[in-house]
Write a structure and sequence with these properties.
The protein folds into 4 domains: 176 residues, Nucleotidyltransferase, domain 5; 78 residues, GIY-YIG endonuclease (3-Layer(aba) Sandwich), CATH 3.40.1440.10; 101 residues, no CATH class; 68 residues, no CATH class. The protein contains 16 helices and 15 strands.
């Protein structure tokens, strides 16, 4: 950290959305190889009203910024101050996003290496759970004469850096900073500007090689960060090294949220079968055991993925990627629970099954056990394989809205199947009218289980009927 040219920076803004809200104040401290150079700050006229809550928090009022310069009037001076420096900020992604968007409005591209003091504090002091600025001010006994003002908070960051240089010490800071500032090298097969326009939000990215052969499909809640991590200088993952050598083109698909990215990734991996994705999952091979526990002498039978779509799952057990795996699992259950191979449909021979002859069956096939008792033990054996029933009375939509509020999507779902994603009421009606029979997909089933039933944050779920539909 102290062998670089740094800008400790803080911004005050009209809100938290970089694509909508605007900067009201800039404060920065320039430090060159550990030596203070200068500090600079200015109020900025945002061209819009500052919300009362923000005025109360920062003390910056509409009257104060009325005569302040607009961002376009300070853009050149600010750009020159930042150019070639490492940008150091607390929750740096916030400040960096605002700077990029303000420069983008002026048709000027801005990019800089960024060091986040939240992440740096976590690496230096992993024993602590809280790393917000107020906590760090208190923990390190920092004096701040202007909290929630740009220059005041930038001074706090510079004071923190000086304290960290002593404790835990310069070697620890150097190691942590090096990890956070891993350099990203543009692969030889891609243009130098390939990273410039990758969005910060969620979505799916695709790497292609020679002749547009799909190399890899990935997803992230932060596309830009994830894509660039593939090409960091250390190449700790061998797959990333191979991708860097082979990639000739990349593309991405923005989504409103994480669920959309997960579903799109699962779909594209199956559709494109990329070379470097570890599991090329073929939904068509998927199968499950169907068994009616009320029919004591009926053997389980395998049903395919196509049969699973639209099923109510009451009598389905296990989800297997091949018939062979399903049969092997049933044999293992038979051995563990002393089940009859004949009643399981694993043997066609006359008389008692082979397992009875070697005393591994309790004898339902030899009249020594009732079919009802055998069925009870089979039900117990199958219990851990039971597929979770669809927890809704019918078709639903899950609404996801992008962080900037500019994009909203409805993911239409039924019986653990993804029927489609729409962005308008007209698209939703069309999907409702023309949805074809979907193919059940194990990955989508797992994604929806986690997202709908396993997460801490309750998703925005909308029941759907063919006669009424919400606007997207």
């Amino acid at each position: 950290m102290f062998d670089r040219h740094l800008i400790f920076l803080d911004l005050e803004t009209t809100g938290s959305t970089a694509t909508y809200d605007r900067i009201t104040e800039v404060g920065l401290i320039e430090v060159d190889h550990g030596h203070f150079v200068r500090e600079w700050s200015t109020l900025v006229n945002p061209g819009t009203s500052i919300p009362p809550m923000i005025q109360t928090l920062t003390g910056i009022t509409n009257d104060m910024v009325a005569t302040a310069p607009r961002f376009d009037e300070i853009a050149r001076e600010l750009y020159e101050a930042l150019d070639g420096r490492v940008l150091v900020a607390h929750n740096a992604r916030f400040d960096y996003a605002f700077l990029k968007n303000e420069f983008r409005r002026l048709d000027k591209f801005f990019s800089a290496p960024v060091l986040c003091t939240v992440k740096l504090s976590r690496k230096l002091f992993p024993q602590h759970s809280r790393h917000n600025l107020d906590t760090l001010i208190s923990r390190h006994n920092i004096e701040c004469d202007a909290r929630h003002r740009a220059l005041g908070d930038a001074r706090v960051l510079w004071q923190l850096a000086q304290q960290w240089r002593d404790v835990p010490g310069e070697p620890a800071v150097f190691e942590a900073t090096a990890k956070l500032l891993k350099t990203t090298t543009v692969p030889a097969g891609l243009p130098d500007t390939v990273f410039d326009n990758i969005p910060e939000g969620p979505g799916v990215y695709l790497f292609y090689g020679d002749r547009d052969v799909p190399l890899y499909v990935g997803k992230s809640i932060s596309l830009r960060t994830r894509v660039m991590s593939h090409f960091s200088g250390d190449h700790r993952v061998a797959k990333d090294m191979r991708i860097a050598a082979e990639v000739k083109r990349m593309d991405w698909i923005e989504t409103a949220g994480e669920l959309g990215a997960l579903i799109e990734e699962a779909r594209l991996v199956k559709q494109l079968a990329p070379v470097h994705n570890r599991l090329l999952r073929r939904a068509g091979e998927l199968c499950a055991w169907h068994w009616d526990s009320r029919a004591h002498t009926t053997a389980p039978h395998l049903v395919s993925a196509r049969d699973l779509a639209g099923s109510d799952f009451r009598d389905l057990y296990g989800l297997f990627r091949s018939r062979r795996t399903a049969i092997e699992t049933l044999r293992e259950l038979a051995a563990e629970h002393e089940l009859c191979h004949k009643l399981l449909g694993l043997e066609k021979r006359e008389g008692p099954c082979f397992a009875w002859q070697i005393k591994r069956c309790r004898g339902v096939c030899a009249g020594r056990e009732t079919p009802a008792a055998h069925a009870l033990r089979l039900a117990a054996a199958f219990a851990k394989l039971r597929i979770r029933a669809w927890p809704f009375p019918g078709r639903i939509a899950v609404r996801e809205t992008a962080a900037d509020g500019e994009r909203s999507e409805l993911h239409v779902l039924d019986q653990w199947c993804h029927l489609g994603t729409v962005r308008s009421e007209a698209e939703l009606h069309e999907l409702q009218d023309h949805t074809a029979q979907p193919l059940f997909d194990l990955d989508t089933y797992k994604i929806l289980n986690r997202f709908l039933l396993g997460g801490k944050k309750r998703p925005d779920i909308i029941p759907l009927t063919t006669s009424a539909a919400p606007a997207a």
